[in-house]
């Protein structure tokens, strides 16, 4: 079974085996972007990065594990002979972090391994606001990329938490319980590997999402900030509050991504947008759909709500390929319906490739029917 190892990167590759003055400079500029470095700092740091890159280019396994905490975890996991089909290196959104991840990736590639540096926007330990935005991006990345590109059980997913920053790794240890098969650390002795398997978790045992589904949908799908009073029965850990407005926290987003499908496959959900309406015949047809088709229909209706909300806003119109909302060519339903469907979007593209057909009534859009692809 192929393995993908996800390793958050710190700056150990640059700070290990350096003199005190250089280490102080590196620690001082850990959270700096390139533009935040003054010319003198950048000159010293760039020279050190170049020297460390050259040293790593020639480094044998023993020196690589000595210099890089991330590589120490990977090499120890494979008993001194680094393997693994894919390696993803999560880099902080800083000058030192991105360069560290690149050098680690280069060394792995020299070992004939596939390595991909992945920069996480806003990820640094400079301030809590940016940090929390970055944690939300990590959850989104895990859900939209990691799970889709490396689906289990076909892949084994390992979180290597030997390197990186403590604040990031604390969050990733919790995330690993949802997205990884196991997480690994180098034990305090420096040579023994500690493996923590994914534990069976009961998600949303109190059914907070189910009890407040429409509220969660508005925050998760439409990215709405709601009045705190609307969310007073939802646990604080799932919310982020600024003044009297709340949005989903990184934990709330994680729980939503892992749980929403169990609520989306039960019945047709009400529209998220006030501009979206359902005909009685469309509602009746959905009563006979299987759970997997109901899930797709509800996801597509969420996308359609997003499209309608974005169409009349100053933001870019939301119309992904999976939705593909467009006008009908000609009048294929002439004389068959009143009012006559004028637009279509995808329902699903597998199996019998169904489409959702509807028409505009002023600013509102009504779904008339679920039908075959024309």
Q: Can you give a write-up of this model?
A:
- The strands form three sheets. Strands 3-2-1-4-5-6 form a six-stranded mixed beta sheet, sandwiched between helices. Strands 10-14-13-12-11 form a five-stranded mixed beta sheet.
- It is elongated, with a radius of gyration of 25 Å.
- Helices cover 41% and strands 18% of the residues.
- A hairpin with a 6-residue loop joins strand 5 (182-186) and strand 6.
- The protein has 14 helices and 14 strands.
- The protein folds into three domains: 3-197, Rossmann fold (3-Layer(aba) Sandwich); 202-264, no CATH class; 272-374, 2-Layer Sandwich (YaeB-like fold), CATH 3.30.2310.
CATH topology of the largest domain: Rossmann fold
Give me the Rg, rounded: 25 Å
Question: Sheet with the most strands?
Answer: 6 strands, mixed
Strand order of the largest sheet: 3-2-1-4-5-6
CATH architecture heading of the largest domain: 3-Layer(aba) Sandwich
Detail the poorly predicted runs.
none
**Ends distance:** 42 Å
The total number of structural domains is 3
Would you state the CATH class of the largest domain? Alpha Beta
**Roughly what is the average pLDDT, rounded to an integer?**
91
Strand content: 15-25%
Q: What general form does the structure show?
A: elongated
Task: Provide the succession of SSEs.
Answer: EHHHHHEHEHEHEEHHEEEHHEHHEEEE
Question: Can you say what the CATH homologous superfamily of the largest domain is?
Answer: Hypothetical protein VC1899 like domain (Restriction endonuclease-like)
Organism: Dendronalium phyllosphericum CENA369
Domain CRISPR system ring nuclease SSO1393-like: 65-199
Pfam families: Cas_APE2256 (PF09651)
Protein name: Putative CRISPR-associated protein
């Amino acid at each position: 079974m192929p393995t993908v190892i996800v390793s958050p990167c710190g700056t150990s590759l640059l700070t290990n085996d350096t003199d005190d003055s250089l280490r102080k400079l590196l620690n001082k500029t850990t959270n700096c972007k390139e533009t935040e470095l003054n010319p003198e700092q950048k000159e010293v740091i760039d020279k050190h990065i170049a020297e460390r890159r050259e040293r790593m280019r020639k480094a044998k396994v023993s020196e690589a594990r000595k210099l890089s905490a991330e590589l120490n975890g990977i090499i120890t996991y494979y008993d001194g002979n680094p393997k693994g089909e894919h390696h993803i290196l999560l880099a902080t959104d800083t000058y030192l972090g991105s360069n560290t991840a690149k050098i680690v990736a280069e060394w792995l590639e020299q070992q004939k391994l596939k390595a991909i540096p992945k920069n996480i926007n806003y990820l640094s330990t400079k301030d809590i606001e940016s940090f929390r935005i970055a944690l939300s991006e990590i959850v989104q990345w895990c859900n939209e990329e990691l799970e889709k590109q490396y689906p289990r059980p076909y892949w084994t997913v390992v979180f290597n938490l030997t390197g990186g920053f403590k604040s990031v790794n604390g969050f990733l240890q919790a995330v690993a319980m949802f997205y990884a098969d196991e997480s690994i650390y180098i034990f305090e002795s420096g040579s023994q590997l500690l493996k923590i398997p994914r534990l069976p978790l009961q998600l949303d045992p109190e059914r907070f999402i189910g009890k407040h589904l429409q509220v969660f949908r508005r925050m998760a799908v439409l990215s709405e900030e709601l009045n705190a009073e609307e969310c007073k029965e939802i646990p604080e850990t799932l919310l982020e509050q600024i003044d009297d407005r709340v949005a989903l926290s990184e934990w709330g987003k994680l729980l939503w991504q892992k749980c929403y499908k169990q609520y989306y496959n039960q019945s047709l959900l009400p529209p998220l947008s006030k501009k979206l309406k359902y005909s009685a015949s469309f509602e009746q047809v959905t009563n006979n759909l299987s759970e997997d088709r109901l899930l797709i229909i509800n996801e597509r209706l969420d996308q359609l709500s997003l499209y309608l909300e974005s169409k009349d806003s100053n933001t870019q119109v939301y119309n992904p390929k999976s939705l593909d909302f467009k006008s009908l060519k000609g009048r294929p339903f002439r004389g068959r319906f009143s009012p006559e469907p004028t637009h279509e979007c995808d329902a699903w593209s597998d199996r019998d490739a169904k489409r959702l057909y509807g028409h505009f009534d002023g600013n509102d859009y009504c779904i008339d029917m679920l039908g075959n692809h024309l």
